[in-house]
Amino acid sequence: MAPHEEKTNESAEEHVPMLEVHQEKDQDELLPSPVSAVQARPASSNKPKMSAAMIIPIWIVLSSAVIIYNNYLYNTLEFRYPVFLVTWHLTFAAIGTRVLAKTTHLVDGAKDVNMNKDMFLKSILPIGLLFSGSLILSNTAYLYLSVAYIQMLKAFNPVAILLISWTFRIQDPNKRLAMIVLMISSGVALASRGELRFNLIGFLTQAAAVAFEASRLVMIEILLHGLKMNPLVSLHYYAPVCALINLAVLPFTEGLAPFYELARIGPLILISNAVIAFLLNIAAVFLVGAGSGLVLTLAGVFKDILLVTGSVLIFSAQITPLQVLGYSIALVGLVLYKTAGSK
After folding, report:
1. Separation between Cα atoms, residue 241 and residue 259, nearest integer Å
2. Which of 28, 40, 113, 176 has its CA 20 to 30 A from that of 4?
3. Where are the alpha helices (DSSP H) in the chain?
4. 156 close to 184: Cβ distance less than 8 angstroms
């Protein structure tokens, strides 16, 4: 299975225009979608099921809510501590997946994973490092850029995955994919050219987040090829690792400053924020297999359009006609990318 196919099927994020069950990841973002290494498990009697008509709107609402809520925390409440927030999300997720493992069948897939020291050190840890980097960088970008512009930049994720896959010869390039790469790249370039509040630090931060996320997904394909995990099983393993990595980074980036702000923000905000992010990952379990890859991709595109619109309406972000044109070109490229990957 090629990495670009996995990305469409695995994340819920957070954080990407192509539906990552995921995730866009939305991943994305937030707790974009922690990873699933491969496609969903074959249908079984205890596999959670929900119709596409029901779960896709739920996923769209939760994925958008995570991004908008995080941006509200960072820029409206001025709680500008992305490393702390991501660490809190991961800690909550690590505890939450273990509670679900004891009380539901949603994490039963973890019983099929033969986790040992060698696998942890050679696969889980390096992928966890990339995952932490992706989460921290993608959240930090919200301190400098609008939600709308970040969603436009995320359209470049599939291009980064393809470029890395071609470099490591995981996938062979062809003319159709090359044209799609050119199309998406041109669209993102036009969107960037039209950005009225362009910030170089924010742009480079988001670009680095895209590189980390693409590298993570390619690394999953290389190191965990054949291992089947749904998004919650992946979160079960990666959340504790990434939380500890982020906790080690926290003293050197934000120090004690976020802890002094906790009283001002209050527990209700932090807990509700983490709950929404965790619910997004639960929704991802039901999302996998709920519809065809193209249907889920179109749902992801619709979600991103809503986020761009919401950014304008809620946060008064300014977008230009050139950005609308560029982003439209990139989104068409994303749909073509999925159809090319499905053949």
Report:
1. 22
2. 113
3. 3-10, 52-71, 82-103, 117-119, 125-140, 147-154, 157-167, 175-193, 200-223, 231-253, 257-265, 267-287, 293-315, 321-341
4. yes
Three-state secondary-structure class, residue 27: coil
pLDDT in tens, 185-225: 999 999 999 998 899 999 999 999 999 999 998 888 888 77
Which three-class secondary structure state does DSSP give residue 14?
strand
Question: SS3 sequence, 115-167?
Answer: CCHHHHHHHHHHHHHHHHHHHHHHHHHHHCCCHHHHHHHHCCHHHHHHHHHHH
Q: How far apart are CA 271 and CA 274, in angstroms?
A: 5
The Cα–Cα gap between 211 and 235 comes to 21
Alpha carbon 302 to chain centroid, angstroms: 16
Max CA separation in the chain (angstroms):
56
Task: Pick 12 or 229 by higher pLDDT.
Answer: 229
Q: Can you tell me the distance from the alpha carbon of 315 to that of 47, in angstroms, rounded to the nearest whole number?
A: 39
Averaged pLDDT, 285-293: 70
> Could you give the CA distance from residue 60 to residue 253 in angstroms, rounded to a whole number?
32
Beta-carbon contacts of residue 258 (< 8 Å; ≥ 6 apart): 79, 81, 84, 85
